[in-house]
Amino acid sequence: MHTRGFGDLSSQLEALRDIDMYRSRRQVASRQGRELTIDGRLLLNFCSNDYLGLAGDPRLAEAFKSGVDRWGTGAGASHLICGHTEAHNALEESLAAFTGRERALLYSSGYAANVGVINALLTVGDQVFEDRLNHASLLDGGWISRADFHWYRHNDTHDLADRLTTVDGVRQRVLVVSDGTFSMDGDQCELEGLVELCAAQSSWLMVDDAHGMGVHGKDGTGTVDPARFTSADVPILIGTLGKAFGTAGAFVAGDEVLIETLIQRSRNYIYTTAIPAAVACATSRSLEIVKNEQWRRDHLKSLIRRFRNGASHLPFELMPSESPIQPLVVGDPASTLAVSRHLEAVGCLCTAIRPPTVPEGTSRLRITFTAAHTESDVDRLLEALRGAVAYTVSVSK
Ligand SMILES: *Cc1c(COP(=O)(O)O)cnc(C)c1O
User: Fold this and answer.
1) pLDDT tens, position by position, 166-194
2) What are the residue ranges of helices labelled H in the chain?
3) Interval 359-370 mean pLDDT
């Protein structure tokens, strides 16, 4: 058989196994919630992004079902052909109002939105500046656009300022891109500094608040408070719907002219089937719950406080995160896997995150909390972590 240049795939897979970097999927046998059934065992779930505990909420399921009854299952075509229903439009209008922007535009995923937006706005000769720890989809968008790509040090507005002086935001398009809440560290971007810098340098700022929306801010509006930061400050705001909102998809919020440009130019918007209208129905219901049930955010905050208090007595390094993402950096992939396996053996599911998702030497447990957890769940996790200390060879502190 001719294997052409692909003959080395299996040896590459073996090499990944050898360095504890092989990834595999687990089959989940229950709906999303504080506990998951995996391999016949019930495990406390400390790794989902379902921050408000809505992914399994019966009210969303009800809205989803009536959406299916009303609209059927598939959207049938892209938004520009005949897939854009009144249900999609109504959700876009609610999301625009929620974020205090003129318009919002639905994408089928956050990944698609990030790549689609950057690629629609930038081309050869333009400049894109990205935080070192930005989500993969933001990096991919920058690379695919063929603009000149610049990194800046994580959350370091001085470093960004130095780098921005090398470009001319009046004669070129300059886009600064940041996660709102960083997905693997849980810290928030230096929004004020970014806004000031971008204004001074005539750059546009794009904030991807995938992990902040629903979780932070008044009514869950996220990292970018619409009462403080207008579309002049943050012209491009991204929210995703598969995390705190408990459904699927994503959106871009901004001025009319941005949204119309994306409708004309964004390939990831134009050349893809619209998400099912029923998903839009469920998300509209979810948005009401996100705004109205402040207790979910309050409860989440108290769980995070309880965890950080307890974990400060353990020999792991806690990161400066006030979000439901509470990473414990272990260091090397093998020890991180060992800790993760120990936790699972005692009933806590918390997957190991390894390079290239995080930088070399910072393999970690990415612990996440949701409003569905109880205080005793947090205590159980702390107890499990206490038992896992022996498996770590490279913990700092
Ligand atoms: C999860 C995530 C995305 C991708 O969103 P999906 O809807 O899951 O494709 C984008 N940006 C960030 C920061 C994320 O964490």
Assistant:
1) 998 888 999 999 999 999 999 999 999 99
2) 9-18, 58-71, 86-99, 110-121, 136-145, 157-164, 191-200, 256-265, 267-270, 277-292, 294-311, 333-345, 375-388
3) 94
Closest CA to 112 of 89, 84, 144, 134: 144
Dist. CA 383 → ligand 1 center (Å): 31
Would you state the pLDDT for residue 334?
A: 92
| CATH value at residue 47 | 3.90.1150.10
pLDDT tens digit sequence for 292-302: 999 999 999 99
pTM for the structure as a whole: 0.95
Range of the domain at 342: 20-52+294-396
Q: Give the per-residue pLDDT at 169.
A: 82
Q: Is the CB of 114 under 6 A from ligand 1?
A: yes
Residue 251, ligand 1, Cβ within 6 A: no
Q: Which residues on neighbouring strands pair with residue 177, listed in sequence order? A: 130, 206
Q: Is 373 in the pocket of ligand 1 (CB under 6 A)?
A: no
Chosen domain end from 265, 292, 319: 292
Spatial distance between the Cα atoms of 170 and 173, rounded to a whole number of angstroms: 7
Residue 77 to residue 277: CA distance in whole angstroms: 11
Closest Cα to atom 14, ligand 1: which residue? Answer: 210
Domain boundary among 267, 292, 317: 292
